[in-house]
Structure of DUF2516 family protein:
Amino acid sequence: MNSSPVWHFVAIAEGYLFLAFGLGCLALSVVALIKCLPKNAQRFEAAFKRTKGFWMAMTGGAVALSFFGMMGGPFGFLFPVIGACMASVYLADVDPEVSG
């Protein structure tokens, strides 16, 4: 049974969309990690936002999840979404509070 060339194009387009989504999630996670690195640890505790080590682990984990999700497999879509959520929490809530 021959498949239509349209479905071949759809499968290729889907692969590129997943790749673009994974790269976007990875970029967001890397930005969160880079923004967390130079912050003073005392500012986290002064703003009542856990510790710097906690947020370094959280944003580093977001980078790892986004990277492993880009490799595909059964969690190829779930891991980047989780990583992007973790990074977004830091960028939206914690980073404005601990920035000077």
Remarks:
- The longest helix spans residues 5-36.
- The two ends are 64 Å apart (CA to CA).
